[in-house]
Amino acid sequence: MRMAEVSLKFDLTQDTLRYYERIGLIPPVNRNNNGIREYTEDNLRWVEFIKCMRNAGLPIEALIEYVNLFQQGDHTTQARKELLIEQREQLRLRIEEMTNTLARLDSKIENYGQGINRKEKELSRLTETEIG
Amino acid sequence: MRMAEVSLKFDLTQDTLRYYERIGLIPPVNRNNNGIREYTEDNLRWVEFIKCMRNAGLPIEALIEYVNLFQQGDHTTQARKELLIEQREQLRLRIEEMTNTLARLDSKIENYGQGINRKEKELSRLTETEIG
DNA sequence: CATTGACTTGGAGTTCACTCCAAGCGTTAA
DNA sequence: TTAACGCTTGGAGTGAACTCCAAGTCAATG
Which of A25, A69, B55, B82 is most buried, taking the most CB atoms under 10 A from its CB? Predict the structure, then answer.
């Protein structure tokens, strides 16, 4: 599969695909006789995987390291596993924090729902009491 | 309270505090006779609130709009509520996506745990089957 | 009275993650 | 055979969100 199609398939610009490959965020894609990238199924899986992980906020640096380890072969599986465990923990923490913030927003919206508009109530929307 | 202390309290640089105020991400902070910012309790609540919302990924633009509405007074409560509801929905979606990715990481790590290292297994770590 | 330290301002600089550009090449269509 | 198309490359440009800087003010200290 060529860039144009991959670009459409994953909604990433061709420039972004080239950029990801250039910085090692996805492994190199083989070229045909004319030097044109031909994405294999494996390449496509990498693109999808990286897009998913980036969307979840995993740092580019960590993902580049993961790709590097992958390319070094089977003796890096332990290191890769540790990397994933670390990133999972970071992600878990981010989700936890965001879930707390979501609850705080719920509470704030709830307060607006009560039709309050007095000064002290207005201010209370900013206090931490509403998340406690 | 002065900048230095606020900066320590919330782990935001003084430059960032000034920047947030400059772009309207927090309402203006009153100055004393010498032109120096004196943060009130309300100011501190705003700083904390904005930091929390930014950490959760709410867009700066939306938060500036929220602060603007707040400063326009009580007749904007409905608009503020709608803004918060919209942002809550966006946040909910982000959390959902990230939770799916977390499950995918769990599954990937699980696979590494089985001590597999054959080619086809290696590749399977990239497939979507592991999240299904 | 000079220096130090904490602040002020406007504006320039930095980093990240793309995004765009110019020049060039190989295949297809007229 | 000329043109268009889709790709190639290295490198420059962009926007967001800070981050830093220079020049200046004011109050307190030696």
Answer: A25
* Strand partners for A37: A31
pLDDT digits (tens, 9 = 90+) for B4-30: 999 999 999 999 999 999 999 999 999
Q: Is the CB of A15 under 7 A from strand C?
A: yes
B35 touches strand C (CB under 7 A): yes
Residues B37, B2 contacting (CB under 8 angstroms):
yes
User: Chain C: nucleotides under 7 Å from a protein CB?
Assistant: 6-9, 11, 16-21, 26-27
Is any atom of strand C within 7 angstroms of residue B73's beta carbon? no
> Measured in whole angstroms, how far is the alpha carbon of residue B96 from the centre of its chain?
16
Q: Which fold has domain B1-71?
A: Multidrug-efflux Transporter Regulator; Chain: A; Domain 2 (1.10.1660)
Chain B residue numbers touching A84 (CB-CB < 8 A): 105, 108-109, 112
What tens digit of pLDDT does each residue of B64-120 get?
Answer: 999 999 999 999 999 999 999 999 999 999 999 999 999 999 999 999 876 544 444
Structural domain spans, chain B: 1-71, 80-132
Burial class of residue A87 in the structure, from the number of CB atoms within 10 Å of its CB (0-12 exposed, 13-18 middle, 19+ buried): buried
Is B9 an interface residue toward A (CB < 8 Å)? no
